Structures are given as structure tokens and as C-alpha cells.
Amino acid sequence: MAAILDSRFFSNRLPAWMPALGLLLAAGAAAAQSFTTPVVSNLTVRMAGRADVKPDPVTVNGSARIRTTVVPDLDWRATPTVLVTIEFVRLTAVGMKGGGRYTVEQTVQRLRTLAAEDTLEVTFPIVPEASAATELRTAVTGLATFALKFDTRSGTLTGAEAKVGTLAD
Q1: What is the per-residue pLDDT across 124-158, written as a single tens digit (0 to 9) for each?
Q2: Four-residue CA torsion sign, 74, 78, 79, 83
Q3: Domains of the chain: which residue ranges?
Q4: pTM here?
Q5: What 3-state DSSP class applies to 87?
Q6: What are the CA-CA distances from residue 157 to residues 14, 36, 53, 79, 92 (Å)?
Q7: How far does Cα 70 stand from its chain's mean position?
Q8: Are strands 101-103 and 140-151 parallel, antiparallel or unpaired?
Q9: Which residues of 88-107 are buried (b: 16+ CB within 10 A; e: fewer)?
């Protein structure tokens, strides 16, 4: 038993990885959330782009209103949850070949885990301005990609960008 407790087997030195672990834990604690109630943020972003849909590619212009509600998890100290609501406002689409006008309306909600940067892809219908009987048959699908930036310490939405495109075949 004395040989097991011999100082040759135990050293007063810390393993080489131990200081690095301490730094990582300290950084994690510093980056921890500093809010205890839900944090609501609102931003409006410009949306523009081209949706290559058939039979007539369209250009899409307008804006989207983004509202985020970050809810901390005080019971389990887990990463906060973000409720993201995106509402397309004053969004129009015009056919590039035929000049047809299209209606674009959409409101979506997504639950996400809070991160400094997050990307959401949202599909939306592009419907010709026509009678209700033909709308469903002639609607095509566009794709909006939103890049969101958060201050993870305060839970505030600090920036957002939106791009319009087409779903990959």
C-alpha cells in the first residue's frame, strides 16, 4: 500500500490540460445569460431577390417584420429558447417575362435555441393576382433565408438580413 501512495506516482503538479479547462469554464460563466425575464426584440428587414419559378421567374421586393421573444430557462439553466415570428409586409412579386403581378403573404413562427447567429429558411407561396378558383393551382413556392444575430448575454436581437431565392430541385 505504501508503494501506491509513493510520491513517484502522485505529483503536486496539475496536468497540462487543467489550466485550459479552467479557462473554458470561466469563459462559459462569463458568457452566461444575464436576463431572468423574457426579452422581446423587433426589427424590420428589407427583402429582395429573384425566385426562379416556372413558368415565369419573379422578382420579389418588400420587407419582413421580425419579432423575437427570448425565454430563459431558470429551472434547469439550459440554453434559452427563442420564439421567432416573421411577418412578410408589403411584399410584392412581378414576373420577369410576362410582367404578371403576384401576391406574397406569410407569417411564420419557429422555436429555436438561442445562439449568437442563427439561420432560418422559410418557404412562402407566390400566388398570381387572379380569382380564388385559380390561386391554388397556380401558386409557386419561394424561399426566404433569414440570418439573425443575437447578443446572447442580454437576449437581444441585434441584426438580421433576408434573401429571397428558390428551393433546390
Answers
A1: 988 888 645 455 567 788 999 999 999 999 999 99
A2: negative
A3: 34-165
A4: 0.76
A5: strand
A6: 41, 16, 32, 16, 26
A7: 12
A8: unpaired
A9: beebebebeeeebebebebe
